[in-house]
Each structure stands twice: as structure tokens, then as C-alpha cells.
Amino acid sequence: MSKSKAAQEATKRYQDKAYDKTLVLLPKGTKDRIKATGATVNGFINRAVLDRLQASESQDNTNGE
Hints:
Oligomer: single chain
Number of strands: 0
């Protein structure tokens, strides 16, 4: 059963408000390698980006003191 048009529009409005979207282009085979870890591609990328941001921000905070 598919979502009603109203539900689809509500979902889109929520996603537009709550999330930044970006297109990520990866070399062929990368998606399969990520899936082999047991993670979803989106979850894996999110975790990698957030970990890297946290490390970068921590480094900036230690250098700025």
C-alpha cells in the first residue's frame, strides 16, 4: 500500500526542515563494501562524517586555547 499524496507531502516538508541533503559519489564497489560491514550506507556515511567533524572540532578547540 502506498502513502497518500498528503502523507508524502508531509514527509517531504519534515525532511526539508530537519535534514540537510547531499549527493555523495563513491567509487564502484564502495556501497557493497559498506553493506558488508552490516551497516546501512546512509548510517555508515553519517557516522563517518559526524566522527570526523567531532575530531576536527575537538582539535580546533585544543589549538585555540
